[in-house]
């Protein structure tokens, strides 16, 4: 069976090696005579898988000791609410930078919880760029500053992160976590739904500085309280065991690739191939993002006409490419090239783009 050339935005391509291993272990994990899905989440075998997934993230991102890694549910979308519910006290406000639809959604949920301010936005510029970090005025009285490190829909990505001093920097890294080296100590909280670079959907990773976890919050439902999850090593209730198992396998795979540094170099190579196809097309492909804000994960572009776009997507699909249509909110085309998308598929896409342009004109 030939595997699809999968450019889906999420859920997205998983490493083939991981899927093959999961298939091999599907009926019998660790000689238990059970599938991982049939194990008790309190069993020693599952606990070890769970801890391996957490340790894998700690190792790969060099997460300092003063951070907790939580495996939660509810997607990144629930974090839009949990962040302000846990970290925005009534006498403070939270700052947001708007760089796309996901930051808008994060802001919308925070507005329901407390006072918020938008300190920068690229909305008026069709979300084609990331505001310059040096232009951000950090308000020392803010409870936190929230950013979206990679904008999955518009195809823009932060390269430098703001220095926020004592204000905790919170980043939604759903679509670029583990794609590049980051200094975790610069952040108060990093969160990400797993379904792009980490594994399947169903598990959400939250990396939170321990001093930000407030114990004994009386007004919060337990499931929305970071301290409850932290106290029980993310085993307060039944976790998504299959998703966590696959997360642990993806962590092993990333280690085998040479870690995040090697993955980052490969991601640059992959992105450069497709951006070159855009830049060398003499304006046939029009990249959405400004050059210095380009995402290495989601490459967004348009063609000269809607008809050309339609034909491009149709022929791409016939060729075996999956997931190249842009997000339904903005249309156009988008190639999502997360960690598990092989270089060969990016080479094939770049070649296809060149051929399509030549045959169209
Ligand atoms: N943030 C970003 C940057 C995303 O790309 C997505 C999903 N595409 C979300 C948040 C929402 O994630 P979830 O579906 O896991 O709630």
Automatic annotation (TrEMBL):
The keyword Ligase does not apply. Its cofactor is pyridoxal 5'-phosphate. Pathway: Amino-acid biosynthesis; L-serine biosynthesis; L-serine from 3-phospho-D-glycerate: step 2/3. One of its GO terms (molecular function) is pyridoxal phosphate binding. CDD domains: PSAT_like. It is found in: Cytoplasm. Gene3D superfamilies: Aspartate Aminotransferase, domain 1 (3.90.1150.10), Type I PLP-dependent aspartate aminotransferase-like (Major domain) (3.40.640.10). Keywords: Amino-acid biosynthesis, Aminotransferase, Cytoplasm, Pyridoxal phosphate, Serine biosynthesis, Transferase. Its EC number is 2.6.1.52. Homodimer. This is Phosphoserine aminotransferase. It comes from Peribacillus psychrosaccharolyticus (Bacillus psychrosaccharolyticus). The lineage of its organism: Bacteria, Bacillati, Bacillota, Bacilli, Bacillales.
């Amino acid at each position: 069976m030939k595997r699809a050339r999968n450019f889906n935005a999420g859920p997205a391509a998983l490493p083939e090696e991981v899927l093959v291993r999961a298939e091999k272990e599907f009926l019998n994990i660790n000689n238990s005579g059970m599938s991982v899905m049939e194990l008790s989440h309190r069993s020693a075998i599952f606990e070890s898988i769970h801890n391996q997934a957490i340790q894998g993230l700690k190792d790969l991102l060099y997460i300092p000791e003063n951070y907790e890694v939580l495996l939660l549910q509810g997607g990144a979308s629930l974090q839009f609410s949990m962040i302000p519910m846990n970290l925005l006290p009534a006498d403070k406000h939270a700052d947001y930078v708007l760089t796309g639809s996901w930051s808008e959604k994060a802001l919308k949920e925070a507005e329901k919880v407390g006072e918020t301010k938008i300190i920068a936005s690229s909305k008026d510029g069709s979300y084609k760029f990331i505001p310059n970090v040096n232009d951000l005025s950090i308000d020392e009285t803010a409870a936190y500053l929230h950013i979206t490190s990679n904008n999955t829909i518009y195809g823009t990505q932060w390269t430098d992160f703001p220095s926020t001093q004592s204000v905790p920097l919170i980043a939604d890294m759903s679509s670029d976590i583990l794609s590049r080296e980051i200094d975790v100590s610069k952040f108060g909280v990093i969160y990400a739904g797993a379904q792009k670079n980490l594994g399947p959907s169903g598990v959400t990773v939250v990396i939170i500085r321990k001093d930000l976890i407030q114990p004994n919050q009386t007004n919060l439902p337990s499931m929305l309280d970071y301290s409850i999850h932290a106290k029980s090593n993310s085993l307060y209730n039944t976790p998504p065991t299959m998703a966590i198992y696959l997360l642990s396998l993806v962590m092993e795979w990333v280690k085998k690739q040479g870690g995040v540094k090697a993955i980052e170099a490969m991601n640059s190579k992959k992105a450069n191939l497709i951006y070159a196809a855009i830049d060398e097309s003499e304006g046939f492909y029009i990249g959405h993002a400004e050059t210095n804000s380009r995402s290495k994960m989601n490459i967004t572009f348009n063609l000269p006409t809607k008809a050309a776009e339609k034909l491009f997507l149709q022929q791409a699909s016939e060729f075996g490419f999956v997931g190249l249509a842009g997000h339904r909110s903005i249309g156009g085309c988008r190639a999502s090239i997360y960690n598990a998308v092989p270089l060969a598929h990016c080479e094939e896409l770049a070649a296809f783009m060149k051929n399509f342009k030549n045959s169209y004109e």
